[in-house]
Amino acid sequence: MTTLFPAFSAAAHRYADSIAIRDDGRDISYADLHMLGRRAGRALMALGIEKGDRVAVWAVNHADWVVAGLGIQAAGAVLVLIGTRLKGAEAAAILRRSGCKAIFMDESVAGYDLPDALASEDIPTLKHKIAFGSGWQTFMAKSDAIDDSALDARIASVTPEDIADIIFTSGTTGQPKGVPMTHAQSLVACQQQQRCVTNFQAGETFAVFYPFAHNAGYRAGWQAGLLNGVRIIPVRNYDPVSILDLIERERVAVLPMVPTLFQAILDDPSLKQRDLSCLRYVGTGAATIPVQLITRMRSELGAQLVTTGYGLTEAGGSVSNTRPGDSDEVVATTTGLPLDNLEVRILDAEQRDVAQGEPGEIAVRGFQVMAGYYQDPDATAKAFTNDGFLLTGDVGLFTPEGHLRITDRIKDMYLCGGFNCYPAEIEGVLRENDAVADIAVVGVPDARLGEVGRAFIVRKPGTDIGEAGLIAWARERMANYKVPRSVVVLDALPLNATGKVNKIELRGWS
Q1: Which of 123, 181, 323, 399 pairs with 298 at a CA distance of 20 to 30 A?
Q2: Mind listing the pLDDT tens digit for each residue in 439-454?
Q3: Mean of per-residue pLDDT scores for the chain
Q4: Separation CA 412–CA 394 (nearest Å)
């Protein structure tokens, strides 16, 4: 088996004259993207980046993000992905835990100055900050100091077993946990995505709406797409009219998005006047989906294939997916069949298999499942069964046909707009507010985002912070999707018999 950059090199040779990325009027062919990736790799080597060093990218979806990612892979470094919804302190925590030596970042995202957000953070290992935009050409020019032969030797030194990337996912302890994937695991995950889900056709257009810092935008997004000769369009605008304009103008064939975006374009008044005959595949997931939405996606968008799926970062991003020919009911109410290379079991509290059709914790094992959390043996030990199955924390069951159905969550985690939210992490930040004596956060239903956070707080004596004040305070310190949308003030939090906060009771109040 090869590694990621040589795999891309083979694709770039095969599709050399085809457009690899179209971004805001800028077309980059496969041949040119390959050349740019090599330049970025040489520039990183000129900065002193060695094989195995961690290098982060903190930016919205755009072509230079991909060039930086390819350069990191070419230089034999480890790509660390950071979402732009995170604030400076959150990004710094990831940089410290991963020991990053360099970071690529946008200069500003939605008015938030990323370099300024890191300026006051103490990150001992971080030696280089490269800003897309003002610092990009200066960085790329450094490639002149390194010969192609030196880069070729570096590429050849990387093995399939070397770590290719780390995506951090916050745990219920509130500390971010790094999920490392090797080059071999990443390639296998891409192959499974192609074989079981998207079936990319060379030359077709793939609009990548999911953030590049997310498995769905990175591994199942531009990385899988570029290995199969498609044209990638990085998306940064999410209003319905812009989405419909993009589909028509660029003849988009592959369109994975969260259910809320599909609902938005289906409800847009201009939909009936649009020519969407280009759509071949539309995929969704990450939330409970009404059967009516799947039916409308199939009938009103006219896509040949409509699927949904279930996955998690620790399993390479995907565990199960519906298949061609599945009914609207199956697509809406299940997450389909497990991928070909994964074993999935349903376990009881003692980690024994439950009876067919009974719910239990979903456990998964296979090549694309992580070996363990990055430099976190305690979290790793808790995450696996004795026979090597990853405990997902999700509750599900198998239908008689073998489809996986997600029914609940063991952990407190909830999904806001497709993003994982961990109450313990959010509570830890909110406790830093001087007016908060005690706090508990739960997920509550929301028509647009699926779920949002609700904070139940006990105020310290003599303080009067309310809903608006705490929410405004929180927005300055955490990603928007983590910020509770409502706050309830209590005299005391309800406790169960063991003295722990009774979140079941709190959810009942919601």
Answers
A1: 399
A2: 999 999 998 898 999 9
A3: 93
A4: 10
* Length of the chain in terms of residues written: 510
Return the closest-CA partner of residue 449 out of 402, 486, 403.
Answer: 486
**pTM of the shown model:** 0.86
Query: How would you label 96-122 residue by residue, b for 16+ Cβ within 10 Å and e otherwise?
Result: bbbbbbbbbbbeebeeeebbebbeeee
Question: What whole-number distance in Å separates Cα of residue 431 and Cα of residue 423?
Answer: 12
* Phi and psi, residue 175, nearest 5°: -95, 135
Mark 344-370 as b/e (b = at least 16 C-beta within 10 Å): bbbbeeeeeeeeeeebbbbbbbbebbb
Residue 452's Cβ-count burial label (10 Å; 0-12, 13-18, 19+) is buried
The per-residue pLDDT for range 121-136, each reduced to its tens digit, is 999 999 999 999 999 9
Residue 46: enclosing H or E segment and its boundaries? Answer: helix 30-46
Give the model confidence (pLDDT) of 348-399 as tens digits: 989 999 999 998 999 999 999 999 999 999 999 999 999 999 999 888 899 9
Going by the DSSP 8-state scheme, the letter that residue 304 receives in this structure is S
Distance CA 301, CA 298 (A): 6
Q: What is the three-state SS of 425-460?
A: HHHHHHCCCCCEEEEEEEEEEECCCEEEEEEEEEEC
**Which pLDDT value is given to residue 263?**
85
Amino acid at 409: R
